[in-house]
Automatic annotation (TrEMBL), chain A:
The chain crosses the membrane at residues 7-26, 38-56, 68-91, 97-118, 130-155, 167-189. The lineage of its organism: Bacteria, Pseudomonadati, Pseudomonadota, Alphaproteobacteria, Rhodospirillales. PANTHER family: METAL TRANSPORT PROTEIN HI_1621-RELATED (PTHR34229). GO terms for biological process: transition metal ion transport. Its main location: membrane. It is a multi-pass membrane protein. This is Cobalt/nickel transport system permease protein. InterPro entries: CbiM/NikMN. Keywords: Cell membrane, Membrane, Transmembrane, Transmembrane helix, Transport. It is found in: Cell membrane. It comes from the Bacteria. One of its GO terms (cellular component) is plasma membrane.
UniProtKB/TrEMBL annotation, chain B:
It comes from Insolitispirillum peregrinum. The lineage of its organism: Bacteria, Pseudomonadati, Pseudomonadota, Alphaproteobacteria, Rhodospirillales. This is Cobalt/nickel transport system permease protein. The chain crosses the membrane at residues 46-65, 77-101, 107-129, 236-254. Belongs to the CbiQ family. InterPro entries: ABC/ECF_trnsptr_transmembrane, ECF_CbiQ, ECF_transporter_component. It is a multi-pass membrane protein. Pfam families: CbiQ. GO terms for cellular component: ATP-binding cassette (ABC) transporter complex. GO terms for biological process: cobalt ion transport.
Length: 205, 256
């Protein structure tokens, strides 16, 4: 969900940039020598995941997977998703430059929050229950992201209120799909190699 | 290097356009200044001048015209919807009515202003910064005092984008060979989830091998950035030209 340049008020743009710098500082702190390659490659993986289109009705949507990013990367989701958005803006013309802070905040803050809330759940002994937590993470992150986008629009002007409501309603099917995809991904990771979820924690597995 | 990000793939023999011989830092700063100036103005003459300047910059960078313009106008669906709704949500004198809904001049104007700003900024960004190698962007950001860990993360991401994308391509081919076709079914969403999960598992295993290989070669957490970025006289000329353009944009905005 990329907001473009020129749509938001200066206060929102500056506020978003300041908060994103804070998030980046927190996220970068944990990127030590041991974790840098893993973080970089996982960041690339989430970039590729965002290029995947899944069918929805007669059309298709691209995945965001920020919930899963939060589960795997923790606070490092901030710099990882920022790098992705920067590359998308510069090389794909997607999003914008002055809104980079707001866009990063909208995607990465929900990722980090969801990661904190669901990190115990996805470690549940039963992979099926872990997958349910994965579904919650996938849907919850998109719901929060949509909410953040709506708030950014609302704070910028009264005339955006209908658009903000529409953004939220039109993303409900996407929340469902991201939940399903994220649940399946968590289930598979639990079955194949659960250390993925601990890859960026204090002691590398 | 990166084919996924490479809009500007050039042959070895082809001479670099003048714009691309500028120092990468000059181009990044120019793009940022342009974005701030365009977001600050609201007059149509100023916005028009900015758009023309962005188009000329694209031509000077010799980017493929149609592909670049297509990327410029691509926006998220909800942004397009928002722009289309603005004439109907902004109060003001009525321009026309559509199925009984009045559209205001003020709303039309606001939608046009946002569209012009967004497209001009993105076009200038792609022409100035997107026309160089992604790794050069990383080096230039490091020289502009962006924290080195963030730059390293960017360089790692760029380095492995194509690798992961090819891995994704192999997995998709394997799925296709087994008769998978994306539909509106639970099976599709589950398969997509497994696909992403598998990508992550393989990515992590790859990163462990890479870390070991890098340690064997003496990696200490620092990637020495070898480059010879240097401001030259032409950077000064370009900066003067660009500053003049931005001042003209601002002057047009505040002149009656």
């Amino acid at each position: 969900m990329h907001i473009v340049d020129g749509a938001l008020s200066s206060a929102v743009v500056i506020g978003g940039a300041v908060l994103t710098v804070g998030g980046l500082a927190l996220g970068v702190r944990s990127l030590t020598l041991e974790k840098l390659p893993a973080a970089g490659i996982l960041s690339a993986t989430f970039f590729v995941a965002s290029l995947i289109h899944v069918p929805i009705g007669p059309s298709s949507v691209h995945l965001i997977m920020n919930g899963l990013a939060g589960l795997v990367l923790g606070w490092s989701a901030f710099p990882a998703l920022f790098v992705g958005l920067l590359l998308q803006a510069v090389f794909f013309g997607f999003g914008g430059l002055t809104v980079l802070g707001v866009n990063t905040l909208n995607i990465a803050l929900p990722a980090v929050l969801i990661g904190l809330v669901c990190q115990q759940g996805i470690r549940h002994a039963n992979p099926r229950i872990a997958a349910l937590w994965g579904a919650l993470a996938g849907s919850g992150a998109i719901a929060l992201t949509t909410l953040c986008v709506a708030v950014a629009l609302l704070l910028s002007g009264q005339e955006f209120i209908p658009a903000a409501k529409l953004v939220f309603l039109s993303h409900i099917p996407i929340m469902v799909i991201e939940g399903l995809v994220c649940a399946a991904a968590v289930y598979l990771i639990r079955r194949v190699n659960p250390t993925v979820f601990a890859s960026l924690e204090g002691h590398p597995a | 290097m990166s084919s996924l990000l490479g809009l500007a793939q050039r042959g070895e023999a082809e001479p670099l356009p003048v714009l691309c011989r500028l120092d990468p830092r000059t181009r990044i700063i120019a793009a940022c200044a342009f974005a701030v100036a365009m977001v600050a103005v609201h007059d149509f003459r100023a916005l028009g001048l900015g758009m023309v300047a962005a188009l000329l910059t694209m031509a000077a960078a010799r980017l493929p015209v149609m592909a670049t313009l297509k990327r410029m106008v691509m926006m998220d669906g909800f942004i397009i919807f928002m722009l289309l709704m603005l004439p109907f949500t902004v109060p003001g004198p009525v321009a026309f009515t559509l199925w009984g809904w009045p559209a205001s001049w003020a709303g039309l104007q606001q939608a046009a202003v946002i569209a012009l700003k967004a497209n001009a900024v993105v076009l200038a960004l792609m022409a100035l910064v997107g026309s160089q190698e992604p790794s050069t962007l990383g080096h230039a950001l490091a020289r502009l005092k962006v924290p080195v860990r963030l730059v390293h993360l960017l360089l790692f991401t760029v380095r492995y984008l194509d690798v992961i994308h090819q891995e994704y391509g192999r997995l998709r081919v394997a799925m296709k060979m087994r008769g998978f076709r994306p539909r509106n079914t639970l099976h599709t969403y589950r398969s997509m989830g497994y696909l992403i999960g598998m990508l992550l598992v393989r990515a992590l295993e790859r990163s462990e091998r890479i870390l070991k290989a890098m340690k064997c070669r003496g990696f200490t957490g620092q990637l020495p950035l070898l480059d010879d970025l240097r401001y030259r006289p032409r950077d000064g000329w370009f900066a003067a030209l660009w500053l003049g353009l931005l001042l003209l944009v601002l002057a047009l905005n505040w002149s009656p």
